[in-house]
Amino acid sequence: MKTAFITGASSGIGWAAAVALGRAGFQLVLTGRRLERLQELARELGDQVPTHLLTFDVRDRAAVEAAVASLPAEFADVDVLINNAGNAHGLAPIQQGNPDDWDAMLDGNVKGLLYVSRAVLPAMTRRNTGHIINIGSIAGHETYANGNVYCASKAAVAALTKGMRLDLLPHHIRVAEVNPGAVETEFSQVRFKGDTERAAGVYQGYEALRAEDVADLLAFMVTRPAHVNIAEVLILPAAQGAATVIRKE
Ligand code: NDP
Ligand code: 8X3
């Protein structure tokens, strides 16, 4: 059984990816900060999908390293890493931005992805096999007003994906980036700090992507033959033309 390691599995895209990859025959290492949510996911996956749960904050390098080092032998040979954990915090012009929000985005979305990758990679380079998918965003490829630091964090993910693909080429490790547009998850609740009305407004008047739509794509990508790397995908709701251009009814 192949092993997939999914960060941010306690919600949204990561949760749906766990369900889709479980169905595709993977055993799963599921990570996030909220243990009870991971336990609920493991229960939903049932006995047919072996799971190992790890709780850590991706911003805490020592915690990331300790968690990955603690993997039992049967889960340690990671075949697929989905670097999904991340969020936006705030939506404000740069001159009014909250530096705590900036830290959360740069430390989580960029350095967290690096810490997890660095900790998991020896299991791949040693075996000369592996597949890494970084969850970027349309925001990493176009910068919208007030998106400044979130967009920068995702632009960094785009650059890192290309760099990782080059560096890991000799080790037969496929590296890819999936860039979603608007997906209805807890993303906007986090961005707007629990303002559920404002968060719901982001998805009103059109059909946003569901986390399952992105998960289907991820399952397709990781089940391609070993010579195929779907290296970069932009996945949008049909009603979305650009980051802030959405056809609303
Ligand atoms: P959710 O808020 O639903 O899920 C975010 C996940 O990331 C949670 O499982 C959360 O787990 C985890 N996470 C966040 N910060 C940390 C941290 N510091 N340490 C460990 N885990 C963390 O949002 P989405 O599912 O939408 O987001 C998943 C990814 O998709 C993110 O990288 C996001 O930027 C990206 N994305 C989302 C889009 C959207 O419109 N929704 C569009 C484009 C990209 P926990 O809180 O338990 O730690
Ligand atoms: C999430 C999509 O457009 O809100 O990355 O930045 S967007």
From TrEMBL:
One of its GO terms (molecular function) is oxidoreductase activity, acting on the CH-OH group of donors, NAD or NADP as acceptor. Keywords: Oxidoreductase. Belongs to the short-chain dehydrogenases/reductases (SDR) family. This is NADP-dependent 3-hydroxy acid dehydrogenase YdfG. It comes from Hymenobacter actinosclerus.
